[in-house]
Description:
The complex is a heterodimer.
Chain A: E1 7-13, H1 28-32, E2 36-44, E3 53-54, E4 68-74, E5 89-98, E6 103-109, E7 119-136, E8 147-150, E9 156-160, E10 172-173, E11 178-190, E12 202-209, H2 211-214, E13 224-231, E14 239-248, E15 253-260, E16 267-278
Antiparallel strand pairs in A: 1-2, 2-16, 3-15, 4-7, 4-8, 5-6, 5-7, 8-9, 10-15, 11-14, 11-16, 12-13, 12-15
Chain B: H1 3-18, H2 23-51, H3 61-68, H4 73-107, E1 114-117, E2 120-123, H5 125-134
Antiparallel strand pairs in B: 1-2
Helix pairs in contact in B: 1-2
Amino acid sequence: xxxxxxxxRMRLQExxxxxxxxxxxxxxxxxxxxxxxxxxxxxxxxxxxAGFLEIDAPTSVFAEAVAVAVETISSxxxxxxxxxxxxxxxxxxxxxxxxxxxxxxxxxxxxATDWTTFVLHTETWKNIxxxxxxxWGTGDDDPAGDVDIRTIGDAVIxxxxxxxxxxxxxxxxxxxGHVAMLYGGFLRRLTATGAWAxxxxxxxxxxxxxxxxxxxxxxxxxxxxxxxxVIAGQYSKQELEIPKGQMFEEDSQIIHQHSCVVDASENYxxxxxxxxxxx
Amino acid sequence: xxxxxxxxxxxxxxKLVKNATSEAQKEIYQGYLDYWITKSNLKTDxxxxxxALVEAPSIPVDVIEVLTEPQKxxxxxxxxxxxxxxxxxxxxxxxxELEKEEEFKLAYPNKNAYYNRDNKTYKxxxxxxxxxxxx
Lengths: 279, 135
């Protein structure tokens, strides 16, 4: 299964927090728009089948035309937020688009005494892409149970598995009224132990889909395009630099896919940067 | 899903509908409210129908005779055999799952294979993905 147990670390930085060197070669008018930086660092595991499948997919796609509230819940009472009383996970952060069409990271506080009681949060969202653990009690430094971010109808959007602080989700939606630019990164082939791989190669696709197809689940009657990166095998380069400059329009959904070229024994390391700014 | 949980959901949805910031948002929250009200009604219907079993329509006598006829020896044996086979298969499945769990723990020492919710044990997503990848 593609992306099985692959991990994506997604983070969003505001313009004021981006290191100066990263933006060095950007034209002045983009810097003036104060772009946000979205980074995805994917530690990819092998596929057992050939063919492109999504990396670290969210549990369900959350797409609302109007922003609405969401809930969080844990499967274990040991996750709770009251002080340092011995609890495990206290807070969970989500990355997504809010009601003002801005990509944001919001930290959501768990139930004070027992997070198996669901908590409704005040922030409203149009999309949620990813989650990660962001505050812990003295009991443990990761969630005791599976912690879910879900709709009010109990459909899980993204989740932290017990014992893991990085949730699922390696896709995102360019907020309405914004554009996104692929701003470089790298793709590196590895063995399971982290050394250079000695195999037949891997391929990565960045697929971009119009909102009407990707989010609403309608038949794909509009175009789905992709950019493909391939490392062909042991006699080619082991590392590939992701180019800068590919632009993505507002409301596009961007999905990352992986496929082994021939054999099923390749791991990989994929780092991607996207700049997002208001048009 | 207990009644208390559904009631809490309904109460919460009503509050959300009341405090919605736009008509469109109100519509979405109303959709959730309708969903939970339906769940609540379904639960009530099930309870009522269980209660009504006592007054179920009478069964014709000839049907009762067929139903109460003593089971033949042969049928009994087949049934017992089927039960034994099922138990054996269940035990085999359990053993296989235990082996897979051990394998999973070796591959991902930081992840749990199971979690508990509402007094039931479920497989974690990571473990489910692992099992699929091994198929």
